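Assess this one:
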Amino acid sequence: MKIAVFHGSPRKGNTYRAAGIFVDELSKCGDVDIAEFFMPQDLPGFCVGCQLCLSGMKEKCLNAGHVAPILDAVLTADALVFATPHYGAASMPASMKNLFDHLDFLVLLVMPHAEIFGKKAFVITTGTGSTAVGGVIKKALLHWGVNRVHSLGIRMFTNRWDKMPALKQERHEKALRQAAQRFYWARKGRPYFSSTVFYYMSKFVLKRYVGPGNFPYEYWVQKGYFDKRPF
């Protein structure tokens, strides 16, 4: 199994520790090929809102050189793992948000990619409000058309894993390893209802308000998405 792991923080603290446990257990389940990306090192430039990628010209993005290998990893992996801490504003770090901003063209309304529709993803979050940010990332992945999104929020009230009581560390590690095992063996399911609805809404919008000769209408024509639901 080919897995792409995206770390939302450069700090190798709690989230990095949790992701390491998860990936270690995946490796024990079978043959895995892991590709890791660290934010912001692997995507240092912020999205400036030029919208070139939303106009079919993603190669002209100011940060195209950094985005290209990330996009390739997303499209070629069998599974995606996103690991991020929860920050004070009930969301993810700016570096992780920047990743999704640069890949916004993957949404069903713009440039959906058939390679994504059969993928599964896992979201690992840590912090006092860890479940909140997990929901934000899951929503973004559903808009890409990802087939299944699993998640685990690790609630903790310390900035160092080793400061937690030993029993709590063991409980979190057990939860991560069990989640990794379930994720490894998880099979493709029926498309989420929300993704199906979003597809038909996108189809209506493109036909009604964009039309022939314009992007992304012509992209959809080229891919055959108007004729048949792609997932």
